[in-house]
Amino acid sequence: MNIFKYSAIELNKSFVKGLISAEDIVIAHINKIINEDKYGAFLYIAKEEAIQAAKALDKKRKNGEKLGRLAGVPIAVKDNISVKGMPMTCASHILENYIAPYDATVIEKIKEEDGIIIGKTNMDEFAMGSSGMNSAFKTIKNPLDIAKSPGGSSGGSAVAVAANMVPLSLGSDTGGSVRQPASFCGVIGFKPGYGKISRYGLTAFSSTLDTIGIFARSLSDIKLFYQCLAAEDDKDQTSWKSTKANNYLEFNKDNKKLIYIKEMLEYCSIDMKENFIKYKKALSKKGMDIEEISLPEIKYSLPAYYVISSAEASSNLARFDGVKYGMSLREVKDIDSIYKLTRSKGFGDEVKRRIIIGNYVLSKEGKEGYYEKALAVKNHIKSAFKEILQYNTALISPCTTDIAFNIHDPKKVTDFYGMDQLTVPANLAGLPAISIPIGYIKDMPIGVQIITSQEEILLEFAQAIEESKGVTNYER
Ligand code: GLN
């Protein structure tokens, strides 16, 4: 048996039945990472910690104690989420030697469910980027073709699942950082609606848009992991209870309606567009009709996202000042020089760019022209989506505008920003969204994005879409 291809559910079953020990599962996965991570997916491998946790779990099973839903499952965690006693660098020099002193709420939940954290994954610095190339330590590569980007910013977490190093991983999604790398690497990437999973212990990038998200190779694993993590949390005032909402009760499985926004296709490469049109036709043949709608304002999502996220980033990153956390460069003794030196050496170019944009849009002259307009766009997108996505309706689109790009192809900063065009609207609207692999273009995977008003509805649609895999050229 090849346990690396097991889903989390299968691994858990084998462990519970006593077919394999947690220690064996953990050692096998750790060795695989040590021997095979030529993709740069991991920044820290928690060998000692994971083996210790596995031994304790084996004892628990032997003693006949009640086991959690993730018992025996190795899980990788993006390096912007706090795990007590492990490094948390956010892939930045400024936090290079920082050890997290507490567990994020999601980590507490994983531990309560007997999941085992086996490492911290590489990412774009402070979750800013779409390429895996903004890590201060090493560029992340796509396991399907190492000349290509795995996407970002949660590139390491996507690669860890795609290369069968773990069945489950955690990422964060502020404007697409779970869905885009999932699409580039051929796995499922799910971000719940805003506030459904506690952000306590996630290093803030843009607090009103950030969500913790999940990678897995099967939808059943996504459902299981989401159920383990979603909860209201006293430590995160924006978190709220994920009970089945009223509109779920009115959800009619047999009467699902799919729509797509025609303007979203305008950003896609010819290949992506053609593939989506083919896919749409194939779905219709299977009885899932898709209606075209127009929402021209969707084009303002991207600029609004970059204004809001940079504004919040500039304020959130002010805490990294060379005094409170991590790196502290004190060649010159006055406080201003400590700030300046630490921040100039500690942050990479992309992070500095966001801080500068953020400071400008929050300044007296930038506020009216940019920040306030961006907030108005956010509110508008939110209400437009609310109106569109009632009851049985889901919005589908390609997840990305093109397939994974070559790492060495020259690109402008704005080319990278443009890649988020199709994913940012869900964050602005605060809605759940998922990317599911539906096929290949030029041997690279592509994903379809689904957005709905509510998680349970999203997962119902995802199930239907997944069952229709056969409608496209799923094989590589
Ligand atoms: N690529 C987007 C950005 O750079 C999204 C990042 C994210 O979702 N964390 O801001």
TrEMBL record:
Claim: Hydrolase is one of the keywords in the record:
no
The record's top EC class is ligase
Report the active site residues.
78, 153, 177
UniProt-listed PROSITE patterns: AMIDASES
Q: Which Gene3D superfamilies match?
A: Amidase signature (AS) domain
- Highest taxon in the source lineage: Bacteria
Kindly state a single biological-process term from the GO annotations of this entry: translation
Give one Pfam family, short name only: Amidase
Return the GO cellular component terms, semicolon-separated: glutamyl-tRNA(Gln) amidotransferase complex
Q: Which terms in the Gene Ontology molecular function aspect does this entry carry? A: ATP binding; glutaminyl-tRNA synthase (glutamine-hydrolyzing) activity; transferase activity
Please provide the record's keywords in A-Z order.
ATP-binding, Ligase, Nucleotide-binding, Protein biosynthesis, Transferase
Q: How does it assemble?
A: Heterotrimer of A, B and C subunits.
The task this protein performs is described as: Allows the formation of correctly charged Gln-tRNA(Gln) through the transamidation of misacylated Glu-tRNA(Gln) in organisms which lack glutaminyl-tRNA synthetase. The reaction takes place in the presence of glutamine and ATP through an activated gamma-phospho-Glu-tRNA(Gln).
Q: Output this protein's name.
A: Glutamyl-tRNA(Gln) amidotransferase subunit A
Q: Which organism is it from?
A: Clostridium amylolyticum
Quick one: which gene encodes this?
gatA
